[in-house]
Design brief:
- The protein has helices spanning about 5-15, 30-40, 55-105.
- By secondary structure, it is an all-alpha fold.
Length: about 110
């Protein structure tokens, strides 16, 4: 019966790739095995439920792709926020310039 930090890491990885929907327990359970089988099936690996080398390699790739997607999303959000801030600054400058012109014209 496998247990410990390595199993917690495995269960956490299975949660991250969407194959395990329960908390990451420190024990290799039937849920862990089924989650591995689901992951194997999703990645066209023989669904044995054993976390073997091909499954490990596919998990590494899947987690790297998730990390890349997160980085892309974060970078896109930062770019959007920066663009919005620049637009707001320019809009505020334009408003201020119109107010200054109107004040100057009133004199």
């Amino acid at each position: 019966d496998a247990h410990g930090d390595g199993v917690v890491q495995l269960n956490t990885a299975l949660r991250q790739v969407g194959c395990l929907h329960h908390s990451a327990k420190p024990r290799y359970t039937v849920r862990t095995m089924r989650a591995i089988q689901k992951f194997q099936s999703d990645t066209n690996i023989a669904a044995t439920g054993v976390f073997d080398q091909p499954t490990h390699d596919a998990m590494f790739v899947a987690l790297a792709e998730l990390a890349d997607n997160v980085n892309v999303d974060v970078n896109a959000n930062v770019a959007d926020a920066t663009a919005n801030k620049a637009t707001n600054v320019n809009t505020n400058k334009d408003s201020h310039n119109h107010e200054s012109a109107a004040t100057h014209d009133d004199k």
